[in-house]
Protein: N-terminal kinase-like protein
Organism: Helobdella robusta
Amino acid sequence: MWSFFSRDPIKDFAYEIGPQVAELNEKSLWSLHHGKRKSNGDSVSIFVYEGKAGNDSQLMLIKAAFKRVKTLRHPNFIIYLDGLETEKSCYIVTEPITPLITYLDEQLNDEKGPVQQLVISWGLHQLAKGLSFLINDCNLVHNNVNLSSVFVDQAGEWKLGGMEYSQTCGGSQDPFTPIIKGLPYLEKYDPPEKITKKPGEKWSSDMWGLGCLTWEVFNGPFVKSTSLKNPGKIPKSLIPNYCELVGANPKSRPNPNKFIESCRAPDGFMNNKFVTTMLFLEEIQIQDNEAKVQFFNGLTQIVDLFPTSFCKQKILPQLLHAFEYGNVGSSVLAPLFKLGKLLSTEEYQKKMVPCVVKLFSSTDRTTRVKLLQQIESFAEHLSPQVVNDQIFPSIVSGFMDSNPVVREQTIKSMLHLACKLNYKNLNEELLKHFARLQSKDDQGGIRTNTTVCLGKVACYLHPQVRQRVLSSAFLRALKDPFPPARQAGILAMSATHNFFTLQESSQRLLPALCQMSMDPDKTVRDQVFRSIKCFLGKLEKVSENPDLLAEVEKEVNAGGLGATNTSGWAGWAVSGMTSLTSKIYSSKKGPQTTVPTPISAAAAATTTATTAATSSAVGALKAASNSTKKVEIKKSNPGQSAISKSTYKDDDDEDGEDDRSDYGNDDVIVKDNHNHGTAAADDDDGEEVGWGDQEWGDMEVSL
């Protein structure tokens, strides 16, 4: 029983006291230690005071500070978590913090000059705001504002500590005369009125301390107060305010609120985008939706100028909260995903992935488009299970959306998701939509991008599916009336040449390519000759040495090869399509029915010979977006397909049946919805052929 009363409370302390932080030695009554919670290992900071005989005055200050810290709750003061008080010792547990002097030497020096000033401007703003709360609202005087009483949390926020000398204004001691602190190091921070006895305001001593702190932040610790007469490296925009802080007359020193107001004035030191952004985030709960949308729309462009710690610990949590509970729409997506890159893999899975899944279930088109535009920034963090079970079922509806911008972005998103799709979603569901888009979409740019995307994801397809699909898809693209679509088909063949057998190359691909050598568009012809040389080179190589056949065709039946290097041949189509659709479909003038389609525009360009001698298909895309004349595409060569007045529609036949096409042969039947007939591509033997025995939706492949 007696052992219970004699137990040492320190042994039952819920926190493990770690190594001491040396920067506060002889600068504070406390010693600061790193620590962690015994139950879960969470990091904390622990202020420790071990009393000695004859130091009763210090013990009284420590116990008073302990009570003050427990009851003082404000964002600009260090956060109290727990504490322990014994007869001769005291322990205060706070959030993980770093002394400001350490932060300036080790972390802030790594930032660039402009970023350093942004951090300092916000830090001084927060300290002045904390002093305003303490003095104006709590009627307390800090009496210890200096470099050793300010700390920085994990987000980079500057916070006040060192409350052991605080006192009530109008208390037992004269509030204009600082108390005796007992530490020689702190004497240099005493204001001049300690000697002159001049009366001042209740904030005079603390604002003097803020002036000393400002000088040391820019110039390093000083030895004597006479150093304050030379501003040194203090920025010119801050010098007038600094001079007011360290004025000899205590009554001339500004109230903390007035100091903030003066620094936030035009051309003031705190009048910058970073402080404005942080202030908006602090008050975001009371802002209207219009202000929030405007703020988030402009945040993406300026967030790169901000310190990484603030972006990750302060701005990103606010964006997540705004997405979860605020009615801000899609405006939050761009900065949200941009800052999400700062998270670790574990943090991303916990914070960002649930948001992504929720966003894909949204029916708002603007949200869907912006989400798809950002998919490159978060696709790598999505697990295959999440993609197949929660994201792909939602995203697949975009292939059939009536808005061409949604269809386009959905196609492009497959470049980043294909590697995570399972067999059914990739080899059946996705290819079914690709077949319909390539053969029936009324926008040439979308048909072009479908071919491009198929070429890029070919390496992920099952070998049996790939052998049946690729040649049929790319040969179909050669019949397209839109020149960039034909060029995409030719380039895709060349980029995926390793997936074709030599027999297929010689019997199906080369004959078709030779016919395309008479294409009316020179950019198409140029690519045809390069592609022919590629396939002929392989055939010639094996002809000279038949033993090389197995090596040349080694990738034909290989699966899961990873992404092929197609940036050089296909990047033009993806990027070019973005500018094309933005010109055609983003216009708010008039209904969509009055907008010229890329097909008719390309036809006009072909008829008037304006596409001659261009170096890339980007020029063709831009030319197409500027043309409005609709003309007939006539058969100019024996090898060309005869497509007359054909428009690529996604309508069903009059009998109500879906006329969806699939890949199975090398020719295409295009539905002519104007004449209610078909314009068939002729095979070499003159027969009209379809696309195979099965539709993509019904395609079955035995493994």
About this structure: Residues 113-137 form the longest helix (25 residues).
